[in-house]
Amino acid sequence: MAVLVLKLLGLGYQRRLSLQFPNKSRPHSRGEYNVYSTFQSHEPEFDYLKSLEIEEKINKIRWLPQQNAAHFLLSTNDKTIKLWKISERDKRAEGYNLKDEDGRLRDPFRITALRVPILKPMDLMVEASPRRIFANAHTYHINSISVNSDHETYLSADDLRINLWHLEITDRSFNIVDIKPVNMEELTEVITAAEFHPRQCNVFVYSSSKGTVRLCDMRSSALCDRHSKFFEEPEDPSSRSFFSEIISSISDVKFSHSGRYMMTRDYLSVKVWDLNMETRPVETYQVHEYLRSKLCSLYENDCIFDKFECCWNGSDGALMTGSYNNFFRMFDRSTRRDVTLEASRESSKPRAILKPRKVCTGGKRKKDEISVDSLDFNKKILHTAWHPLQNIIAVAATNNLYIFQDKVN
Ligand SMILES: *[C@@H]1O[C@H](CO)[C@@H](O)[C@H](O)[C@H]1NC(C)=O
Ligand SMILES: *[C@@H]1O[C@H](CO)[C@@H](O)[C@H](O)[C@H]1NC(C)=O
């Protein structure tokens, strides 16, 4: 894979959205990306009722299916979801009758001739405009948003509740899951992620901090507190420890494009589940098993609570997820081969090839290997995305976004 670009967003972690698209004026130079548009999605707010500051930090971004030349996306911070339209403008109208070129109204008595306005080309302008603001529906922090396959509704999930919205309606949403116990002292489990099925608009899943996934069918009842399917792997009693529950918490759940499988990410592994089998996953991949002996220090520095995302490639044949030291892992499902790669500035020269990395655990360290003890736990790849049709990936490493793509000639 060749590195395409490294772009320093430089504006604090994920506060601003920067979209990267290939440079259209140089269509033949594959392998170079520029920032397409940057805009402020959320501003800091204050919740007067609870005397809490709401950070502008963006928790999730979701694209809507494209229906015309413009792109639409949903972005959310802890409390407020926004729908944005991103559109291009490369022409402007000139020769209006009622106003002059600066936009000032002309004196109607001095208009003597009728002009036909003409379109003049101008430098490409990318505009981001807020279209809808969906606020005041979440008491706890929003961790997921997911657009439904009906293209009309979406869900938003916080620690204890999931709401269903219509994309056009901002002043009301429907609560479809509520796991808040009457007595908060009985709270044992929180919702960690939720997603709609890619094809069946009545089906969605949500994962929990106890390592389980519940599949719900909105046709069976309006409030989906009772699940239709419950996915849980029986715990191996021999490996039980103080950290078992923490590391089994699911940080991300993603349906395959086909809708047949789903993937979950917990602290140490990625699991693939067949929707028709609830008792155990059909595939399990170790992400960084060498950390099992380090859980104590990862608990002390809070890393054990990091929320790693995971993603499928366009044809569901491969999986990707992040790790520490700016490493990310890719798994080929049919050959069961896996690779560890690193997102770094050194390796990000255009057309450079990424070298597989290896972590050594004890014993003699070979050349090119890195020992577990020298991994940098402040450098982590939590967010990854795979292009839906091509072999192009995006990897977010703190303030940097790396885009890598399959070898090009
Ligand atoms: C895109 O490529 C053209 C032609 O090389 C260059 O002039 C332009 O600055 C590039 N655009 C951006 C946004 O970098
Ligand atoms: C997804 O990964 C599989 C296995 O590596 C590969 O055969 C397939 O071409 C990939 N699909 C896309 C769209 O990149």
UniProtKB/TrEMBL annotation:
Domain of life per record: Eukaryota
GO terms for cellular component: protein phosphatase type 2A complex
Keyword Transcription in record: no
InterPro entries, per the entry: PP2A_PR55, PP2A_PR55_CS, WD40/YVTN_repeat-like_dom_sf, WD40_repeat_dom_sf, WD40_rpt
GO molecular function terms noted in the UniProt entry: protein phosphatase regulator activity
Keywords tagged on the record: Repeat, WD repeat
Keyword Glycoprotein recorded: no
Family: Belongs to the phosphatase 2A regulatory subunit B family.
Protein name: Serine/threonine-protein phosphatase 2A 55 kDa regulatory subunit B
Lineage: Eukaryota, Metazoa, Chordata, Craniata, Vertebrata
Gene name, Swiss-Prot/TrEMBL: PPP2R2D
